[in-house]
Design a protein that fits this description.
Bound molecules: coenzyme A
Strand order of the largest sheet: 1-2-3-4-5-7-6
Keywords: Acyltransferase, Transferase
GO molecular function: N-acetyltransferase activity
CATH topology: Aminopeptidase
Number of helices: 6
Number of domains: 1
CATH superfamily: Gcn5-related N-acetyltransferase (GNAT)
Pfam family, one: Acetyltransf_1
Helix content: 25-40%
InterPro entries: AcTrfase_RimI/Ard1, Acyl_CoA_acyltransferase, Bact_Acetyltransf, GNAT_dom
Length: 181
């Protein structure tokens, strides 16, 4: 992305992103991103099992493509009125170009379609980049799970409430006009 187009980019601008349901055949490309994105990556089996649960409607997993290349993925699980974001990552060379914004907006609209009232997630205390993304979406920190990661690093628990209300829908539409609502 050129400096000029980046300067002109609005938050969440599409820039050729295509969103599709995550499929088993996506897992090798997902693993390439997963392994460089997390200190403790999920295994292929975890993704396969989450895809299976998506088929039963208990999860919702998406991939983002640009020019047919898989550049990001994200997923959520649904628990009595809340949607829990389980994973979200963008390919390193595609970061800060709106991939995660588009994926998170798609998950939020899906949560609204499923009559959820809130979104929630855990994020590493050191992961200030992801926290900035979540704040843009209206997530606020509500607590800390001490030594949640590898028995060493704290997790910040974040919640975003009233997602089905008109002000939040308007915020989502502004953050990412391209997301399917
Ligand atoms: C966190 C992550 C998913 C963000 O993905 P992304 O596609 O780069 O995010 P976007 O381009 O949609 O960013 C949207 C906004 O979020 C904020 N943001 C995202 N990454 C940020 C960073 N590293 N530092 C500061 N702000 C950041 C910015 O406000 C950004 O808007 P801007 O680029 O116009 O300033 C990506 O860095 C990643 O895959 N990290 C590794 C996996 C991970 O940590 N996942 C989260 C687990 S809780």
């Amino acid at each position: 992305m050129s400096v000029l187009s980046r300067l002109l980019r609005r938050p969440g601008e599409d820039a050729g992103i295509v969103i599709e349901p995550m499929r088993r055949r996506d897992v090798p490309a997902i693993m390439e991103i997963e392994q460089v994105s997390y200190p403790k990556p999920w295994t292929p089996n975890v993704f396969q099992s989450e895809i299976e649960l998506s088929r039963r409607g208990e999860r919702h997993y998406l991939v983002a493509r640009r020019d047919t290349r898989l550049v990001g993925y994200a997923g959520a699980m649904f628990v009595v009125g809340d949607a829990h974001v389980t994973n979200i990552a963008a390919a390193p060379h595609q970061r800060r170009t709106g991939v995660a914004t588009r994926l998170l907006a798609e998950l939020a609209w899906e949560a609204i379609r499923r009559d959820c009232q809130a979104l929630t997630l855990e994020v590493r205390a050191s992961n200030t980049g992801a926290q900035a993304l979540y704040r843009e979406f209206g997530f606020a920190p509500v607590g800390i799970r001490q030594k949640y990661y590898e028995n060493v690093e704290d997790a910040i628990v974040m919640w975003c409430h009233d997602i089905a209300e008109a002000p939040y829908r308007a915020r989502l539409a502004e953050l990412c006009p391209e997301a399917a609502r």
